[in-house]
Structure formats: C-alpha cells, structure tokens
Amino acid sequence: MENMAEALSAGGIHGEESECKICYNYFDLERHSPKLLSCSHTFCLECLETLHFREGRGWRIVCPVCRHRTPLPERRVRNLPDNTALTEELSHKKREPEDSLNGIPGQSP
C-alpha cells in the first residue's frame, strides 16, 4: 500500500500498520494513541514519551527509525499530531459491536 488512506479504502488497517514499531502494542485511543512524526513515521504516545524523557526532554524528538528530528510543540509529545488515518479507523472500530452476527450466512442478529 502506498499510504494509510489506501490501506483504509482497501478494507482497513491490519497487522503491522496497526501496531507501534517500538513496543509492538496495538494502537488505541488512550496510552498507545498513534502519534505522527514529521518524517511520517508513527509510534505510540507512551513510547514517544519514554524516548523524549530519555533524550532529556528537549524541544525535539529523534525518530528511532530514520533519526530525523521532529520539533515538539510546547516540548510535549502529547502535542504531536495524531496519525488521523489510524485514529479514524480506531474510532470506527470502537463504535462497531465486536460480537455482531450481521453478515454471517444462516445467522440472524
């Protein structure tokens, strides 16, 4: 897939796109919310906050993949932009009932 929008239009985000490449936890809308760095790499809030702490809490954060430096608005990781494609997909999944039988042949809701 070329980008996140294509992944969404092809049926959603699955597998590697839905997990943080540092901790391998699935992204969520809380502690593991997907934060986008200026280099276009995405990591969870918790991992980026830990990385920022280890780097000395400066005004920028270094991407663990490509070493690109991303400025931090007000020196806070929380203020980095969300990866909107991922957060929209997570919001959509949160609204869907997990045990719905709709669409399964021979089953009625």
UniProtKB/TrEMBL annotation:
<dbReference type="InterPro" id="IPR027370">
    <property type="entry name" value="Znf-RING_euk"/>
</dbReference>
<dbReference type="InterPro" id="IPR013083">
    <property type="entry name" value="Znf_RING/FYVE/PHD"/>
</dbReference>
<dbReference type="InterPro" id="IPR001841">
    <property type="entry name" value="Znf_RING"/>
</dbReference>
<dbReference type="GO" id="GO:0061630">
    <property type="term" value="F:ubiquitin protein ligase activity"/>
</dbReference>
<dbReference type="Pfam" id="PF13445">
    <property type="entry name" value="zf-RING_UBOX"/>
</dbReference>
<feature type="domain" description="RING-type">
    <location>
        <begin position="20"/>
        <end position="67"/>
    </location>
</feature>
<keyword id="KW-0862">Zinc</keyword>
<feature type="region of interest" description="Disordered">
    <location>
        <begin position="79"/>
        <end position="109"/>
    </location>
</feature>
<dbReference type="InterPro" id="IPR017907">
    <property type="entry name" value="Znf_RING_CS"/>
</dbReference>
<protein>
    <recommendedName>
        <fullName>RING-type domain-containing protein</fullName>
    </recommendedName>
</protein>
<feature type="compositionally biased region" description="Basic and acidic residues">
    <location>
        <begin position="89"/>
        <end position="98"/>
    </location>
</feature>
<dbReference type="GO" id="GO:0016567">
    <property type="term" value="P:protein ubiquitination"/>
</dbReference>
<dbReference type="InterPro" id="IPR051435">
    <property type="entry name" value="RING_finger_E3_ubiq-ligases"/>
</dbReference>
<keyword id="KW-0863">Zinc-finger</keyword>
<dbReference type="GO" id="GO:0008270">
    <property type="term" value="F:zinc ion binding"/>
</dbReference>
<keyword id="KW-0479">Metal-binding</keyword>
